[in-house]
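Handout, tutorial session.
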Amino acid sequence: MNYIDFVKLWEMHSQAPSLIAGDKQITYHALHLKVVSKIDELKKAGISSGDRVALFGTTSISYIINLLSLLHMDVIAIPLSIRHTETQVHERLKQSGCVKIIAQESSMNFKFSSRVNVFDMEEGEFSNHYMQLAQLPLTQPATIIFTSGSSGSPKAVLHTIGNHYFSALGSAENIPLKPGDRWLVTLPLYHVGGLAIIFRTLLAGATAVILQDDLSLSENLRLSAISHISLVPTQLVKLIEEETDFPALKAVLLGGAAISPEIVRRALQARLPLYLSYGSTEMASQITTTHADDPARLDGTSGYILNYRSLTIAQDNEILVKGLTLSPGYLEGDQIYPLIDDDGWFHTGDLGIIDSLGRLRIIGRKDNMFISGGENIYPEEIESVLLSHPGIMDAIVVEIPDEKFGFRPVAFLSLKEGLKIDEKDVSRFLSDKIERFKIPLQLLSWPGIGNDLKPSREQFRKIARQQINETNSTE
């Protein structure tokens, strides 16, 4: 098959709910009509095939209708974060060669440049004009997602319809999804993990349920009878602390960051159907995932390679990937820069090993490594050991300059509620697990720096150096 026919898929489930947001739900038949109406509206407003159009707003039914309308108009959709500043938004518009944006008025806390054409995200009235929705070629450019920039400047990653399709297909072969299932949209749509939920549900005839921010995570799960959910570790911790008895829940897909073995153990004790994964924006979400009831979940592995992807480990332990989910390249204006080497592999920058059973274990990132007294230090190795401490919920290790050793590690720790950092206790805990030169020079409290799903290591690095400098200047 060289294309996706959404209309044919949606007609098969015409009276089933496609999207739910609180008390509002629309069937697949209504979704079809709303997309047709929105296309008519956007065409009259001056958006046409070949355009690049940004989306700026919170996750909503209107947002998803606009997204699907753009795809059916052969327009590249560019989801942007409402957390970004005015400068960051305009930098991303420039980087992606975009001068048109569909915005949710309630999310706009600044004015866009006069060079940018702004269109309303909210739904208009149904159009009387009927339009046959086009089949979407798998090769059609579909979206631009910006990388998190957690270890450098964000990159504009171009994805095709086929990238999203095969990502969803490989996921569903490992985590079954069928009509009647409900996947809670807990990740923002400017993250590839959030966008992947929409493609998975719409291709399976399942339902995407939009998270209600005024309810707790457990209330969302219980009240909407959620069967599937995607979480990052901090969200999983909140869920365990709130409640864990959800009879309808079939799968908890976990990714985005390293997770404490203690948290995994607690999740499994609570009978949460946990799937651990490794993925990337460039590969349109999941690359490897554990299987159902896989004992590897307690071993710190990220599971097995999914179908439609390939993975190998280079001599320096870098993870190389390719496959039908791999982006055609990074976008810079009108230029597309391919990601692959001469043999067709994308070098992820992540380091890992494959165990004897074919499971991937992540070691760290090449660009996070630093040298201390002539020794190579990978922050993720130290973080992994810290996360095995029963009182530590999250950990980030960064380097600070040191006159004698070049650099030394320091660690930011997020502890269980009510606990305080005890440097002697943590040092004793680490002393028989890692070499002495890897033990953090100082333990710092977790800073309140927003609610990003993937913390910026560079931001932690700046905070650490500022705090150390302030401490030294007062001594």
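The second record follows below. Compare its token runs with those of the first.
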Amino acid sequence: MTKKEYEVFWTATAQDDLCGIIDYISRDSIDKASAIFNRLKKKAEDCAIFPLRGRVVPELKFFNIEIYREIIENPWRIIYRIDDHTVYIIAVFDGRRNLEDVLLERLVRIE
């Protein structure tokens, strides 16, 4: 029996997050930035086979919002949701940051 694969789609916001992370790290080391890029992409792509592997985002679960999941590639959090047979990567950010602060920054940027 073969496992059903999901399509993994990176939203523009998640792509911007990833580019920002890699840009910042590349200022010190291109090699390290490349290695981290590969780690984060692989972790996200693993969702194609194991989309339910990630946990429900705890800060959102507190408010009964359970459609968003996350996987950790320390110290980063990769936030995603599953819709039909697609995994949408929503955000990638440093897990040492407060999720509420990250969301607030995004809301302010939109206006």
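Points raised in discussion: The first helix runs from residue 12 to 26.
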